[in-house]
UniProtKB/TrEMBL annotation:
Organism: Clostridium bovifaecis
Pathway the protein contributes to: Purine metabolism; ppGpp biosynthesis; ppGpp from GTP: step 1/2
Organism lineage: Bacteria, Bacillati, Bacillota, Clostridia, Eubacteriales
Subunit annotation: Homotetramer.
Signal peptide: none
Family assignment from sequence similarity: Belongs to the RelA/SpoT family.
Keywords, alphabetical: ATP-binding, Kinase, Nucleotide-binding, Transferase
Stated name of the protein: GTP pyrophosphokinase family protein
RelA/SpoT domain boundaries: 45-166
Pfam families, A to Z: RelA_SpoT
Biological processes annotated in GO: guanosine tetraphosphate biosynthetic process
InterPro entries: GTP_Pyrophosphokinase, NT_sf, RelA_SpoT
Molecular function GO terms recorded: ATP binding; kinase activity
């Protein structure tokens, strides 16, 4: 297959990855707007490089004309989560979607690979609306925690360096690191409520500070520089140690000043 034909072949995969990134980032945004904990921390996606496609097809004896039917990860999505239980929330979200069909799932968190690899994989059939009609492609979701993703990225790099023949000593250290990363995930899960409360508090305070600063800039724009400077000094004192209630009072004060001069 000529390079030009390969580029044409990959177009629906490229479109699928871009669409899926938008859709799953939107899910995260929706949770945040409702002030709810999002199981999605961030989303990435990629289309497999041509050299990697051919290498994998050769490894598994997949004929070129069968690649689109048998190579499941040409379009790859990674969904990162803060906590292990969030992974299964994302899995449920995917199961409920009507814009894709799940072909099969692999739970490498419960059934850990010998290397120590942990992740949840879902293979889906996804319809892409092309100029000449609908084209169904296969795509792979890998859902994992940040710690799992760090470990998997390191293992991938070492597999590339050693051509999948990682020396035994390094392999043992990798396995030990994988277990340590999972233990970290488990410990973080035990204090999840505390972490989520702290993150929510930070978001609330950040929003209040942003609103107050917006009002201060508005006061400056209408020539109320002395009041603006006074509010800015109060805000500077509250930013590091102020409570939410104190920031709310300052926000109300700036809003009252604006109403007077409007």
């Amino acid at each position: 297959m000529a390079v030009r034909e390969w580029k044409k072949f990959l177009i629906p995969y490229e479109q699928a990855v871009e669409e899926l990134k938008v859709k799953f980032k939107s899910i995260r945004r929706e949770y945040r707007r409702k002030n709810e904990n999002s199981p999605i921390e961030f989303v990435t996606g990629r289309v497999k490089e041509l050299s990697s496609i051919l290498e994998k097809a050769n490894k598994f004896n997949i004929p070129l004309e069968r690649i689109e039917y048998e190579l499941e990860d040409i379009a790859g999505m990674r969904v990162m989560c803060q906590f292990v239980d969030d992974i299964y929330r994302v899995v449920d979200l995917i199961r409920k979607r009507k814009d894709m069909q799940i072909m099969y799932e692999k739970d490498y968190i419960t059934d850990v690979k010998a290397s120590g690899y942990r992740s949840y994989h879902i293979i889906v059939k996804y319809p892409v609306n092309m100029a000449d009609g609908v084209r169904e492609i296969l795509a792979e979701f890998q859902i994992r925690t940040l710690a799992m993703n760090f470990w998997a990225t390191v293992e991938h790099s070492l597999n590339y360096k050693y051509k999948h023949q990682i020396p035994g000593e390094i392999r043992e250290k990798l396995k030990s690191a994988a277990d340590a990363a999972f233990n970290l995930d488990q410990e973080m899960l035990e204090i999840k409520d505390e972490i989520m409360d702290a993150q929510k508090l930070f978001e609330v305070k950040s929003s209040l500070v942003s609103d107050i600063m917006g009002n201060i800039f508005t006061l400056i724009s209408i020539g109320r520089n002395i009041e603006a400077e006074n509010y800015r000094n109060q805000l500077n004192k509250l930013i590091s140690e102020g409570e939410v209630g104190e920031l709310n009072k300052l926000l109300e004060a700036t809003e009252k000043s604006l109403k007077i001069y409007k």
